[in-house]
């Protein structure tokens, strides 16, 4: 079963050959990791993912978390797997050594984590949230807060959450209504009493860790009872389930959300302050809640994208395996006889090729972004590029990872619809990814309304693309694709220019379509860039030859969609904005 | 809740105004149904669907059928709803009056049935299968067989199944291995003893009806034990769960399949003849099993398409309703203030417009095909057109109905992913439709490898399209779209010509893409045809104006995809066939 997770050959190709992990390791401040130890971490991750995370994948879907009088009870197998994960020090993989972390570069940490996400995304969500929480505290918390709340998370003893959404405030955080009233000062900083309802809190309650550290976005209330307004009124608070005194904080589980997938991750409606107010300490300066969250947003969104890619990847691998084993019919034009494996049918191959383009392409795109996370500390251009690519990677991986899962079901036929196989669950699990951490529509507005407004950012990206085009010109097998890539990006560049001059209605009517177009443009660029490393590979090197085939497929059947997506913008259409709601 | 099913305004528009149900009723042999009684049937269907089928929609998803020592137990609420359905005579809606049926034209019967599919597709599957079974017996059974097995189904006392697939024989029925050994003769015809395993049998066992009538595809064995080979060796047998003697037949439930959706419909692995052989009677002539099934295939596939359209339609209606109620943020470019309903965001409207095009377009396409079923008895052209449109309608409704369900989840955000709302279940239920009754790949081969080979069939379709183009030329508002429709069909016609001259590998590598291209071509034609009925509608007629808006949207953002899908075929590409399996 374990060969169904991320293939090591794929990871090695992406990390060492395409993304230059060697160089990243050499440039890393934390040092100490060489190629051999990196390989050992990847081995270890693949093994624990296969032996600790994968075995309870179906079980945690069948046996959902339960709400009891004493709180939420999760599947014990999840706790057992996460204890092993903690023992290996993986909670701290990407955190700095001076805080007890392993100091892995983001690129390596993400490659390692991809195995866990592929094996069991719902179990892996706990360390993902915990690491993000600890990282925020390291960045903005006081020394005392870090010691009290971040270190136990880095050790994997306590788990963390992010409490942003409320029942009435999802995509629009300006509507957050949770109140925080000052309540004095102590060693952990300025203390507040919080009250309000937080919705969709992943890991919001469970019995898997000794304590749960909530990071809560709330609105401060001043001494006169005046509430700070707008997004500038939002601050970040650290609010533990169990207080340093050992007492339970005033946080109640008001309900458990029953999701279509991702079921092993408990998901709660939490009521803060049903009694005297939940005790929390402000993290950083007042009014900085949103900017602090947004500083972490790129990494959070890349985390979602990595999960989406990993789910899509595993589904696709199941499909490739099944198509090689399942005997059914014979392709048209072949002589009659016994049934052959369905991989022999061109239509099945077309599905698997599309799945390969989506699944491998998404994984590659996300790891590319992870490398930019490593680069941004010493290269401001990388930070700009990362900002531009984040909405693209988040959406492309979420939507095409899901498409790879859909293909995997289709390749399995009726069996793919049965719960005995994993492919249907992978599809259900992945459906969350275009929704959380900013829906596709929100990513579209981020790209079209913000990121593309910066022409210099796009020029940076185009510079990298032109390097690929130049390399392709030297490679007869791929030179034609290089010219097509350049042309596609000329058109995308034109679309960005038109966008900058567009009225708000035109922008809003085309933002998501533009996001899709840029997604395909980026995926096509990266497919060609990887294919260039493999040009000339023959039948004796099927892994490498497959990269060239997939690239050709993507340019033949996917890249032309770009034109369909940008055409309405280029024509200045605001049709969706124009239709009266009553006509829907 | 009931206004969430198929809107009566929509049905009236499609039936009376677009599809001329008046004329169909007048031409019907069975007569007796006028506009008033047709309206009463539609009222009745909407009411029973809302009050009898909808209320246990979630429940039948949560409480799956159970396999017990005495057989499969289904949710009692399903049985109660179906008894009401039987009492109203709806099992026999489309069957001839001389057999106890209501004699409704297919168009009206499908419009009525769409309400039940929208409300609860899994409960509606029982009468769908039962009617199909009875219809087959009426067409090919002896008078004694009809009396013994069809009439109790027409009355809704017994339910029926179709037993085609086997664990090793799904898409390729030539691999069917169930054996039928002659066992004498009696009043019900030539008797056989059947043995073999049948997989994916919907309604294969349950406690909802007094008896279950299986129609089983099996291979006859002659007196020398010689088994008939190939598809020509397959015959059809009627095999009841309980024999006319009152004894249980030799049919065992070997397992219950646990599906991702559609859970209220029991789905079984049945073992026929574990002991002395299950008793069955041959229906029609030996060796005619497949042709008999295929004679019913158009209607079966249209039934699947209707379910897919109905599920997509309901999901989309939920989304429209939710978008009008959910307050969140404000569209870019509007002044700050309180949150507005999300329908105000152009991106949400774009999603809802796409959903409208898909959901209403699919329902319209399926009902168009139902009208062809009515026409084919007196118009051979209608039969040819129906043959051409069936794979298109089956796939387009299945894939775009599902896409409408996906959109509905996205519009609901996190709530759409929670099982408290119906939209996630509608999506799961609908995922079966691109698989059963011939996968999308099989439909592609049917269209490209068979139906499009008949240039006269395509010419017939083009004739109807040209009528729409001619009407559009008279309507300034829509004349431009008419010209674009004609151009698109010129290209599709060219693709069909290229296809006819293509090598098998090129055909098989492009069949599904071509199916998608024709699907959009047909949907675009029908959208324009309906919009022409509504041209000039103003703000005071939002239902009609909405048809024009949706048509414009479809031409702006969907029709250009046709070119993407046909381009590889026009270039003669066989890329999917060429890639070695090891490179995947």
Question: Can you characterise this structure?
Answer:
2 copies of one chain form a homodimer. The first copy, chain A, has 584 residues and is α+β, with helices and mostly antiparallel strands. The mean pLDDT of chain A is 96. The first copy, chain A, contains 19 helices and 10 strands. Chain A has helices at 8-18, 21-27, 35-53, 57-62, 76-87, 106-119, 121-140, 143-154, 289-325, 346-375, 380-412, 423-430, 440-449, 455-473, 476-500, 504-534, 542-557, 561-570, 575-578, and strands at residues 66-68, 71-73, 159-163, 179-186, 189-202, 212-220, 234-240, 251-256, 267-272, 278-283. The longest helix of chain A is centred in the middle third of the chain and has 37 residues, at 289-325. In chain A, helix 7 runs antiparallel to helix 9 and helix 11 (380-412) crosses helix 16 (504-534). In chain A, the strands form 2 sheets. In chain A, strands 4-5-10-7-6 form a 5-stranded mixed β-barrel. Chains A and B meet through helix 9, helix 10, helix 12, helix 13 and helix 16 of A and helix 9, helix 10, helix 12, helix 13 and helix 16 of B.
């Amino acid at each position: 079963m374990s060969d169904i997770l991320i293939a090591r050959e794929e990871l090695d190709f992406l990390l060492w050959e395409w993304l230059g992990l060697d160089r990243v390791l050499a440039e890393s401040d934390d040092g100490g990791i060489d190629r051999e130890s990196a390989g050992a971490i990847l081995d270890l991750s693949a093994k624990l993912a296969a032996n600790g995370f994968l075995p309870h994948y179906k079980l945690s879907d069948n046996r959902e978390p339960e709400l009891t009088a004493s709180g939420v009870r999760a599947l014990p197998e999840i706790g057992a797997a996460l204890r092993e994960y903690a023992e290996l020090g993986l909670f701290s993989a990407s955190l700095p050594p001076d805080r007890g972390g392993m100091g892995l570069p983001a690129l390596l940490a993400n490659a390692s984590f991809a195995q866990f996400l592929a094996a069991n995304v719902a179990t892996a969500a706990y360390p993902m949230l915990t690491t993000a929480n600890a990282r925020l505290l390291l960045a903005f918390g006081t020394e005392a807060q870090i010691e009290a709340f971040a270190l136990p998370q880095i050790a994997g003893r306590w788990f963390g959450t992010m409490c942003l959404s409320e029942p009435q405030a999802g995509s629009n955080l300006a509507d957050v209504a949770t109140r925080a009233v000052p309540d004095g000062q102590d060693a952990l900083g300025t203390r507040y009493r919080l009250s309000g309802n937080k919705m969709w809190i992943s890991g919001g309650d469970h019995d898997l860790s000794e304590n749960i550290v909530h990071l809560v976005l709330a609105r401060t209330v001043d001494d006169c009872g005046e509430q700070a307004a707008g997004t500038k009124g939002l601050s970040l608070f650290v609010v533990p389930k169990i207080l340093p005194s050992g007492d339970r904080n005033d946080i109640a589980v008001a309900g458990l959300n029953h999701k279509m997938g991702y079921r092993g991750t408990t998901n709660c409606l939490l009521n803060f302050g049903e009694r005297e107010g939940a005790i929390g300490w402000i993290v950083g300066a007042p009014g900085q809640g949103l900017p602090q969250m947004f500083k972490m947003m790129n990494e959070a969104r890349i985390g979602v994208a990595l999960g989406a890619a990993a789910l899509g990847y595993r589904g696709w691998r199941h499909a490739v395996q099944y198509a090689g084993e399942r005997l059914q019919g014979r392709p048209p034009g072949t002589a009659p006889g016994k049934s052959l494996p369905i991989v022999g049918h061109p239509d099945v191959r077309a599905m698997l090729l599309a799945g390969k383009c989506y699944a491998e392409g998404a994984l590659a795109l996300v790891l590319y972004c992870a490398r930019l996370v490593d680069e941004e500390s010493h290269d401001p251009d990388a930070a700009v590029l990362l900002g531009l690519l984040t909405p693209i990677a988040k959406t492309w991986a979420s939507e095409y990872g899901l498409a790879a899962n859909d293909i995997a079901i289709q390749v399995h036929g009726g069996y793919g619809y049965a719960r005995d196989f994993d492919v249907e669950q992978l599809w259900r699990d992945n459906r969350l990814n275009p929704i959380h951490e900013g829906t596709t529509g929100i990513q579209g507005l981020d790209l079209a309304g913000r990121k593309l407004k910066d022409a210099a950012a796009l020029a940076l990206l185009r510079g990298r693309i032109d390097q690929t085009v130049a390399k392709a010109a030297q490679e007869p097998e791929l030179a034609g694709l290089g010219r097509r890539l350049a042309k596609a990006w000329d058109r995308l560049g034109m679309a960005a220019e038109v966008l900058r001059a567009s009225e708000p209605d035109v922008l809003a009517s085309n933002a998501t379509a533009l996001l899709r177009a840029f997604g395909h443009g980026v995926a096509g660029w990266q497919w060609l860039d990887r294919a260039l490393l493999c040009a000339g590979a023959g039948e004796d090197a099927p892994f490498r030859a497959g990269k060239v085939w997939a690239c050709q497929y993507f340019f033949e059947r996917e890249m032309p969609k770009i034109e369909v997506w940008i055409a309405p913008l280029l024509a200045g259409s605001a049709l969706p904005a124009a239709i009266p709601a009553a006509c829907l």
